[in-house]
Amino acid sequence: MIINGEKLDLKELKFADYVEKMGLRANLIALELNGKIVPKSEFENLILKKGDKAEIVSFVGGG
């Protein structure tokens, strides 16, 4: 699987665990998985699998 251009040699990865490990806040990110936007309501149970390509975008406030 590839997450934000970084190849991870894993068979599976629970997305919520990855978010926590990376110190991200689920309410402040968007996920595109294999070219489709994933609703936040699916983050908790989402399993990324070998061959998946994910892009995570964080929202930043400021002016």
Automatic annotation (TrEMBL):
Organism: Campylobacter helveticus
The protein, known as: Sulfur carrier protein ThiS
SUPFAM superfamilies: MoaD/ThiS
Any Pfam family: ThiS
Source organism superkingdom: Bacteria
Parts of the chain that traverse the membrane: none
CDD domains, sorted: Ubl_ThiS (cd00565)
Cross-referenced NCBIfam families: thiS (TIGR01683)
Entry-linked PANTHER family: SULFUR CARRIER PROTEIN THIS
